Amino acid sequence: MIRTRSSRAGLAFGLTCGLLLSLTPAAGAATFSNNAQIAIPIRGPASPYPSTIPVPPGALTGKTTDVNVTLNGLTHTAPIDLAVVLVPPEGTNILLMQRASSNDDAGNVNVTFDDAAPGRVPVPLASGSYKPSAFALDWSFATPGPGTNYCNPGPAGGGTSCTLASALNGADPIGDWKLYVVDMFDNDQGQIAGGWSLDITAGGSQRSLEVTNVSTGGGTLVGSGKVTGSGVDCGVDCFGAYDPSTQVTLTATPAAGSNFGGWNNCPAPVGNTCAITMDSDKDVTATFNPNPPATLTVRKDGTSIGTVTGTGINCGADCTETYNGGSIVDLTAFPGAGGTRFGGWAGCDSASENRCTVTVAGDKTVTAKFDLVTGPPTTPPLQPPIAAPPSGAVSTPATPAPPTTDSPGPPRLELGGSATQKLGSVIEVTAETDEPATLVADGTIAAPRTVAKLSAAQRKAKTFRLPAVRADAPARTRVVLKLAVPRKALAAIRASLKRGRRATARVTVVATDPAGDRRPAVRTIRIKR
């Protein structure tokens, strides 16, 4: 049963479907609930996935000014295994709970997530109000979940200053609110017996600010950056809510290899800053362009053989790649088998053992030296790539890779594969880790943008999610991950690839080692006919 409760007086009536609505639009606060049980399995997405609470038209008026979320009757034998994300109808998705609390049993507790709570989720988990809490690297929520498209409130694992207020205030509360719950590990399970509820406050006189980042360029050369300011920290899109006449200054910061192209709808732009007076709702766009291209060439020298890998480099055979000028590229050298050692780098900006970092400000050449020695190799040899079957599973090599001696911490993760691929039933990326790890990959594929800026509805219509695949990766072994392209996406994107236009696939891979440490990485692929 789904219920809503208005804080304002008004005639209410019950419908046969069990939905209780107020006839008077509420410009104050209201509670909306979905009391259906959420079953949490030993591992994987809960059921239902997602659990949805609709906020119907007329239930609230005005913009969101405060949101609290409550899980009713949470029971789990190891709540630290849970990942919970809230996806609003408008605003920014926010991680509520991930790797929080402990392995101690939680029995029928009511947990409220509230920015005003005094602290984070405790150990052991008990009923109460807590700030959203994440204590590990981002988790990728499988389709139809948001993948890694959400803000992480921290305090650990790459968290930001993200709060319920910064993610949701100033957005329209009307529409479907979705809760995705996942058990990330084996052996434990549970339920949210009473479902969940939303306490939403809307109305007032606050003004909303939406900031959108637009990337220009084509092929592998695409601009990127972020916009920050009071209440704003945007990698892609974000909202903020402000009292009338509040002065807000936004700052655009391009990523390495990109430059700031300018503002759109900014009333007072000065270079990479934008000054705004919030006397009404505002919608501002920042454009980031790629720097002029520069080429990195990798050469191999010495008396033996080896392979050098990096973003777009698999040398081996592919020893040249073109980047946005100013891009920072990490390279790793792997000696070949049969008594080969790595002899050093030339042309790096910085180097440590078999790793090299280079800034490709202009055309640049880096040389890796491999020499024959009488003793054993100093670095385990690179294993040949293992092609995954279409399901995404990866078989183990016939010859096990030597054990890793790297220090504790998240596994190192390098992605590769063709940066430009033909549109087909699958998209391929290669992944390699320095220790045994489990790989989970998902992503999106988007049709070409035909205008400088698309509305949120247009972006959603032109973007399709790639179902997640999973693979077990031996140490220092390249595996091929194949992500299926949905038929609906194939038809829509094929029709849009005209006159040399390119679609874009963005694949996120998360590597998890046996200790539970995670390392995410993202690969952007251009799609042609």
What does this structure look like?
- By secondary structure, this protein is mainly beta.
- The chain folds into four domains: 201 residues, Sandwich (Jelly Rolls); 84 residues, Roll (Ubiquitin-like (UB roll)), CATH 3.10.20; 90 residues, Ubiquitin-like (UB roll) (Roll); 144 residues, Immunoglobulin-like (Sandwich), CATH 2.60.40.2550.
- Helix content is 4%, strand content 51%.
- The strands form ten sheets. Strands 1, 4, 5, 8, 11, 12, 16 and 17 form an eight-stranded mixed beta sheet that branches.
- Strand 2 and strand 3 form a beta hairpin.
- The longest helix has 10 residues.
- It is globular, with a radius of gyration of 25 Å.
Largest sheet: 8 strands, mixed
Helical region count? Answer: 3
- CATH H-level superfamily of the largest domain: Galactose-binding domain-like
Give the class from helix and strand content and strand pairing: mainly beta
Describe the structure using short key phrases.
Jelly Rolls, 529 residues, globular, Ubiquitin-like (UB roll), 3 helices
